Amino acid sequence: MLARELCSISAFRSAPPSEPCSTTAGGSVSSDAGTARSKVVSELAKLDPIVRDFVRDEFRLKKKLREIEALEAAAASGKSLEAAQVAKVSKKGQVLSDLRLVDQHISEALADFQKRHGPVPLALKSSEQQAEQQAAPGARSSGSSKVAVARRIPAYSASCG
Question: Would the pTM of this model clear 0.70, i.e. be above it?
Fold first, then answer.
């Protein structure tokens, strides 16, 4: 399953940007490859602090972009913007540029991680879910188990950084 999702990410990355993607009613892009990529990236962010920082930057920039788009919509509806709001809207190009750069860094980190460690483990299960699976088929977990379940995390040396 992970291999199929990684293939769809590769297809998503190699597709020309002019190809249409389906959009939801809210205007956000909906793509299976994009969803698979976000799952893999979120798992990688749990393992790599550098990717975690990139993901935080991506969220921060997306939030700024949403705020700018809301201000643009308000201006289009006839509402006058204050000077600080106009300044914020004027920075849209820089925010988009930064967002593309962060996305590129995340993609490079994902490719680098896969090259060094193989595929990223997808959907690591919580300790509760693993404990339930290990329990007898007829037995149910009360959810109050104090059993710690160790997850195997690939070694990451500082020299790879």
Answer: no
